[in-house]
Amino acid sequence: MPELGFNEGAWRFGTFAGILLLMIVLEAVWPRRKRRHTRLRRWATNFGILFSDYLAVTLVVLLVPVTAVITALFAQQYQIGLFYWLDWPLWVEWLIAFLVLDFVIWGQHVITHKIPILWRIHRVHHTDQDLDASSAVRFHPLEIILSIFIKSAAVLLLGAGAVLVVIFEAVVNGSALFNHANFKIPPTLDHMLRWFIVTPDMHRIHHSIERQEHDTNYGFALSIWDRLFRVYSVEPELGHDKMIIGQPDAQDTGPETFLWSILLPFFKRKMPASNAPPSDKNSQETT
């Protein structure tokens, strides 16, 4: 099988860590909202979930060697996919591939809200009661595995190149860190950027406790799909400072704990949290 020619893991980690660090600095210097909870427990849980994602993906790749990049290399070796059958300029292929893959991720996000069994998995992401860069990695391992297979199928159909796939995934991961980050962008600039990409204010609406708001603004990188399919919201009803983030039946301490978050998809009804009192919706802890 062909090789990438560079260390994919090191490149991914370097870009992820660099963007994450930048977002953390921006959140510290220009915070958008006051935090409801301390960072320590939330970050420990969210990054703990990220580590469990890494372990799950490693196990899956050992059992079934499938990732989007491996699929791209496989398609290259056997000349499978649309781009290998059509003699298009490279820039056209890259543009189409980026748009199609971004749409596929958008579509996956939509169905995780619409299909009950998938919502139980994706709901882990939505139970975070604050939103910051760490929220971007709060995805249950089952959702990460599902995403791998969906992206791999799209890559195989397209015949997208491996380098393109690596760059696309870096862009999407960086976009997720950016649009979950809790930092302030001047309103004029924010509304200009929204014509092209998903901004933090735009995505925050998607994490609203209100159903009519969290069923909008599904985009990860590009904002075009929300506008095109008429699921775009401009502002939350209560405004960004007063809106409540999370799920109506998960406003206690449960989402701050790793085990609660990992086990959540396996319980049809609300899981018990801890003996600690529910979080005050009006709490404004900033430490």
Fold and architecture overview:
By secondary structure, the chain is mainly α. It is globular, with a radius of gyration of 19 Å. Helix content is 57%, strand content 0%. It has one domain. Helix 5 (90-114) packs across helix 6 (116-126). It has helices at 8-29, 39-63, 68-78, 82-85, 90-114, 116-126, 141-158, 162-180, 187-193, 200-206, 211-214, 224-228, 258-263. The chain is built from 13 helices and no strands.
Q: SSE layout and pairings?
A:
Blueprint: H1 8-29, H2 39-63, H3 68-78, H4 82-85, H5 90-114, H6 116-126, H7 141-158, H8 162-180, H9 187-193, H10 200-206, H11 211-214, H12 224-228, H13 258-263
Task: Name the descriptors.
disordered C terminus, mainly alpha, 0% strand, 287 residues, single chain, 13 helices, globular
Largest sheet geometry: none
**Gap between N and C termini:** 50 Å
- What would you report as the Rg, rounded to the nearest angstrom? 19 Å
From the spread of the alpha carbons, the general shape counts as: globular
As an assembly, this protein is single chain
- Which series of helices and strands comes N to C? HHHHHHHHHHHHH
* Mean pLDDT reading: 91
Structural class: mainly alpha
- DSSP strand tally: 0
Total helices: the number is 13
Q: Which residues sit in consecutive blocks of at least 5 with pLDDT less than 50?
A: 274-287
| Proportion in β-strands | under 5%
| Helix content bin | 55-70%
Number of domains: 1
GO molecular function: glyceryl-ether monooxygenase activity; iron ion binding
Keywords: Lipid metabolism, Membrane, Monooxygenase, Oxidoreductase, Transmembrane, Transmembrane helix
Membrane topology: Multi-pass membrane protein
Transmembrane segments: 12-30, 51-74, 94-111, 144-168
